[in-house]
Q: What sequence folds into this?
């Protein structure tokens, strides 16, 4: 009955043994696992979907659920040769009662996410733009939060700070060609900088790169190691000059639109706009923006509301929730958030995706101590 059964047959198996006690049901699953472990795992998956509880037993290899208190260990502060000499520590993420993620990330409709490391992440953090009024106060806190989040997810993380547009392209190209990328299940790039309309992202020299440049660097033909694997791009930058304002005041907020920007200040591949629609080449990419197209993105001294909300939601829900649903939760939270001294300014993040499968991060339990959760 279980040897060659489909998922539907496994569902009927679960339904047919409802009269068993929980302990007898666990014994039944153990017996099935000795004959066909794949079938047993499907039964466990169905049980988890119905009850939201893992089906564990003495012979199971499913990890015991863990929880971590905020005060267990101090937060990790990312550091590298380019980092600021002193960055104030930020609080760790809220207390989380984590339940191990079970089952569904192995289905054909989902991206596999079971390598060690889970993937590789690059953070480009542009803070100092040669003019105090243009410096991005609070961006180091955003970089720290992203670093901790990626470590929690089981990613290897590298951070670059204060790069010109030309250096940004060089760093991105080097990352796309990193020889160990094939050993991960996913790739992520976070860019924290000033931005402007037409998807322009500024280097600290005032020159800009574009989203098309990024897509060209990481398209299948130029990043063959990541073919068929998810590539996530997180952008904290303005995308225009418009604001979501309920009144005419927006005090004590900074935005990521530079005063020195000019449309001619662009370097890069010069790729045509049509490349945005080359689905085959840009498949499995997902761009997550801190604001809607044409709108400003905001920061506070303790970091941006977008990065804080995004990292909190991912850490809280990555163990059992698909990424698009996590993003809907991020949008819901920010849509109800009021910013500024008069709580008048809103910002709504945007997601542009060409992911062909569902994305479950499936964070490894072993990574949680390293990330201090």
A:
């Amino acid at each position: 009955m279980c040897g060659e059964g489909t998922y539907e047959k496994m569902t009927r198996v679960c339904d047919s043994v409802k009269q068993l006690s929980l302990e007898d049901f666990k014994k039944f699953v153990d017996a099935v696992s000795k004959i066909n472990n794949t079938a047993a795992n499907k039964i466990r998956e169905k049980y988890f979907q119905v009850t939201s509880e893992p089906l564990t037993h003495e012979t199971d290899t499913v990890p015991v659920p863990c929880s971590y208190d905020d005060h267990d260990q101090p937060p990790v502060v990312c550091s590298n040769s380019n980092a600021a000499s002193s960055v104030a520590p930020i609080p760790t993420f809220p207390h989380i009662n984590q339940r191990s993620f079970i089952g569904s990330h192995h289905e054909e409709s989902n991206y596999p996410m079971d390598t060690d490391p889970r993937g590789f992440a690059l953070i480009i953090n542009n803070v100092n733009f040669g003019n105090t009024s243009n410096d991005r106060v609070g961006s180091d806190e955003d970089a720290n939060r992203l670093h901790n989040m990626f470590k929690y997810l089981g990613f290897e993380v590298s951070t670059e700070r204060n790069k010109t547009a030309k250096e940004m392209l060089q760093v991105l190209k080097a990352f796309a060609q990193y020889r160990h990328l094939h050993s991960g299940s996913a790739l992520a790039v976070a860019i924290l900088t000033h931005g402007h309309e037409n998807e322009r992202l500024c280097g600290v020299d005032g020159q800009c790169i574009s989203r098309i440049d990024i897509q060209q660097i990481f398209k299948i033909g130029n990043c063959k190691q990541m073919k068929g694997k998810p590539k996530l791009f997180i952008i904290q930058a303005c995308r225009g000059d418009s604001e979501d304002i309920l009144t005419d005041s927006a005090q004590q907020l900074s935005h990521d639109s530079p005063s020195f920007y000019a449309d001619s200040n662009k370097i890069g591949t010069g790729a045509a706009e049509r490349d945005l629609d080359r689905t085959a080449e840009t498949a499995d990419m997902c761009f997550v923006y801190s604001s809607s197209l044409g709108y400003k993105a905001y920061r506070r001294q303790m970091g941006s509301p977008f990065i804080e909300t995004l990292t909190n939601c991912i850490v809280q829900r990555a163990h059992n929730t698909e990424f698009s649903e996590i993003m809907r939760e991020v949008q819901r939270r920010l849509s109800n958030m009021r910013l500024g001294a008069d709580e008048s300014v809103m910002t709504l993040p945007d997601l542009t995706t060409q992911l062909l499968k569902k994305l479950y991060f499936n964070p490894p339990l072993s990574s949680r101590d390293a990330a201090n959760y």
